Amino acid sequence: MEQNQEQQPVFGIEKLYVKDLSVEVPNAPEIYLEREAPQVEIQLNTAGRGVGEGVFEVVLTVTVTAKLAEKTVFLVEVGQAGIFRIMNVPEEQVEPLIAVACPNILFPYARETVSDAVTRAGFSPIVLQPVNFEAMYMSRMQEQQAPAETLQ
């Protein structure tokens, strides 16, 4: 009975933290006199790596760039990280957990950090819309398979 419990799949959060936070307002103070709404671009990136037996660090990096014409209004980059315990899970399920489940957990924390950083920089908060990490993962998998298919 005990051995059966040891083989139960484990997926748990060990720690959530801000690994990197950068705020730039290169054209201050003049940029605060602008009345026009800036164009906002958002980029997301995820990365995961093993840090021990069944322990992984996953970092969700969110970069928000606001521009008026060619002038950068502000640039905020947040590296929201987590340490996750993933054990007794079939090998083919580990990557989807790291690429989909972990970023889904990290995203609300990253969204709050981005909003707070933008507000502290003196601008209206940016509210990041929900992200479908599963669709991003599937798209990345298809892109990786496409070049392999053209080589055959």
TrEMBL record:
It is found in: Cytoplasm. One of its GO terms (molecular function) is unfolded protein binding. GO terms for biological process: protein folding; protein tetramerization; protein transport. Keywords: Chaperone, Cytoplasm, Protein transport, Translocation, Transport. GO terms for cellular component: cytoplasm. Belongs to the SecB family. One of the proteins required for the normal export of preproteins out of the cell cytoplasm. It is a molecular chaperone that binds to a subset of precursor proteins, maintaining them in a translocation-competent state. It also specifically binds to its receptor SecA. This is Protein-export protein SecB. It comes from Candidatus Dechloromonas phosphorivorans.
